[in-house]
Amino acid sequence: MAIFSKKSLSSAGKDGFSLVEVMVGALILSMVGFGTLSGLLQARRMTQGSINEGTAMTVAQGYLEQMKNMQFSLLDEDSVSELINQGSADTLSVSPNVNDPTAGASSDIDNIKSLDINNTPDDDTDDLKINFVLYVEDITDTSSQVGEARRIILRYSYTDNSLLSGRVVTDTLVTVRSDVPTF
């Protein structure tokens, strides 16, 4: 006398998953998980690149704004010393003028500034190091009735390691400052 009928024996394997089905499901799940993780890591690196770019641009614009508002005669010095960077006194040395300031020259004076944008004061390996090159050109033209004026050109560059490529990012900002009498 058999306890099991034919029907119950044939349907016994249909109630669960076989080892092959579990392995295929785990493989698909791991592939989806790996793809998601890769996408998140790439997004994080791109975000860090944007943070670096925005920080460098903001610091460069801050230097230009300070130069536009300082005493005009200080722009004719070999170094611009009445600047503030991260709450501390700062100085930028002025490079000799060249034909193409965006390309630079061997006579450029590098002003390397290190910014701790990751808020890790004990670890300077993750700091953003920006190289500033400053040109101040006298564009006074009395024949055209242009008074005392200076063209201020600030070129900055940094190495962006956020995408693991180590590409050098360079940009140039230009402004004009005139000596306007105040009453």
From TrEMBL:
Keywords: Membrane, Transmembrane, Transmembrane helix. The chain crosses the membrane at residues 20-41. The keyword Transmembrane applies. This is Prepilin-type N-terminal cleavage/methylation domain-containing protein.
